[in-house]
Amino acid sequence: MVNGMSQKNYIRAIYKIAIANVLIIFNLNIGTVNLIPNWLGYLLFYDAVHVIVQYEESTQLLKPFVKILGIYELIAWVLACLAISTDSYSIIYILMHIIEVYFYFQLLTNISHIAFMHHYDQLANQLKTLRTLKLISITLFALSWNEYFKIGINILNIILMLWVCVVLFQYAYLEKSEDQKKELAD
Transmembrane ranges (predicted)? Predict the structure, then answer.
């Protein structure tokens, strides 16, 4: 069983994952420079994954993938700062989308499993549904050939990520409330 301090760290990790999604969703650009770079989101993911491993061991598999995604986003951000264009149809771009698909699918699977173990069945099922929809949207975006189709899929992806954030914030709040009840009972 996980102790109280680990539970608080777990709750913080869920908040970090929700915030990481927000950082990745929104881009505030000045010229080619994103002032809210995606690599910051992956840094939060990386920090959160270390905590979630205590609850779901298979999360360990995500550590190298979140590092790869974070480094890729950092390099892309630096290149954008230097006004160097990156080819969005390169093999590296496609590989990063494959890693992203696996990362999000497994992360949301792990969190939904933990939520289920903590008796938050409805939230667990919502996360599983969102996980599957996100998988489809990321795949369609990566494979899209038409710019209008890509815009539509991007809008869908933003809506899904925001929905994931809402569910994660709600889940973290419920975990926090339950933790506070336990502290008061002790």
Answer: 12-30, 65-85, 155-174
Domain ranges of the chain: 4-185
The low-confidence residues of the chain, meaning pLDDT below 50, are: 1
Phi/psi for 34 (5° steps) reads -85, 120
Question: In a 10 Å sphere around its CB, with 0-12 CB exposed, 13-18 middle and 19+ buried, how is residue 155 labelled?
Answer: exposed
Cα distance between residue 156 and residue 141, in whole Å: 10
Burial class from Cβ neighbours inside 10 Å (0-12, 13-18, 19+) for residue 52 reads buried
Cβ-based neighbours of 34, under 8 Å, separated by 6 or more: 27, 28, 77, 80
Give residue 4's pLDDT. Answer: 61
CA–chain centroid gap for 150, Å, is 20
Q: What is the pTM of this model?
A: 0.87
144 phi and psi angles, rounded to 5 deg: -70, 145
pLDDT of residue 6: 86
Q: What are the C-alpha distances in Å from 118 to residues 7, 62, 158?
A: 11, 22, 28
Ranges of beta strands (E only) in the chain are 29-30, 33-34
* Helix, strand, coil % over all residues of the chain, rounded to 5: 80, 0, 15
